[in-house]
Amino acid sequence: MPALRDAYITGTGVSLPGLPVGVDRMEDFLGRIGGRDSLLGRRALRWNGVETRHYALGTDGVPYTSNAGMTAEAVRGALEAAGLGREDLSFLAAATTQGDYLVPGHAAAVHGELGGGPLEIASFQSVCGSSLMAAKAAWLQVRANEHDVAVSCAGEFSSRWFRPEFYQGTSLVDAKGRLRAEADYLRFTLSDGAGAVVMEPKPRPDGRSLRVEFVDLVSLAGRFDPCMWAGAPVEARADPLATWSHVGPPAAHAAGAVALLQDFELLKRVIRAWVGVYLEKVDQGRIQPAEVDHLLCHYSARSLREEIVSLLEKTAGMVPEEKWFSNLAAVGNIGSASIWVMLDAFLKTGRLKRGEKVLCVVPESGRAFVGFMLLEAV
Hints:
Structural class: alpha+beta
Radius of gyration: 20 Å
Shape: globular
Strand order of the largest sheet: 5-4-6-7-1-8-13-12-11
Low-confidence stretches: none
Number of domains: 2
CATH architecture of the largest domain: 3-Layer(aba) Sandwich
Distance between the termini: 27 Å
CATH class of the largest domain: Alpha Beta
CATH superfamily of the largest domain: Thiolase/Chalcone synthase
Mean pLDDT: 96
CATH topology of the largest domain: Peroxisomal Thiolase, Chain A, domain 1
Order of helices and strands: EEHHEHEHEHEHEEEHHEHEHHHEE
């Protein structure tokens, strides 16, 4: 049996639809529930620190691309950056919170947009952490000598979830036309876009490559109810028999079970659980903070970063904040695509030097999940 090989990220690509949208215009694109500005939305934007983001639809709510279209564009960009073409690609792992279809998976839709000959594909559907689920699949395919060119990609078209028609006529809107906080906050938290990375068994002969040292994935779903979800009403979200598929689309919509929702009280407990998993990795020696030169931590809001820092700063696991990199203010939280869009932006800063190590951390509130990926510049 062939020995395991190293795997290297040799190219990155992104797709950010349209022009950057500032905070004063975001609700023009999302639409106004009951024709009124959202009071919670203004507070949410102060908490998350996002200054601009991208939407894949116009102010009339009409989309001008698809999730699969954005993801395919990011894949093409990553292949081009690696000096490769579509004909070189043989394995595609695609991640998303929700693809353009309920069925089939996102990877099939992305392959359809890319065109070309046969591919081995794998779809990963969760929330932000699905990016690293796909990354581990691509990494292992290269490591195991199954494929020489693998892509891990992720795309999100979140804004379509936040249009008024997802809420009007449902139990999420009260008699005064106000939207429940579990739904309204998320409308001002998520952005659209896609990102991708190419993995190969050898580094590029020219330019910088990143050797993937490990990808660790940890689910804590056995300890927590869903924290961010769609497909079930707020009060019965932990009951798989109360989901939309058991009551039918019309009844599910009326119950507010189709919208994307977040339990903010539970999120506070989940944050502590994420940090606990990270500190366990430090105690085990799997992650050594002193050896981390750059930290790319995905978080949905500036306030969430502050909470994570406050939990870590008095521990041996703290990586000094001057080593942290984020582009949240410029592009917002793009869910599963965030880590690849962030990595692409970081590489373009020119800060990375040969031999330095980059730790990518992707926590997910979906049902309490966190992933880690350690990279070394070669």
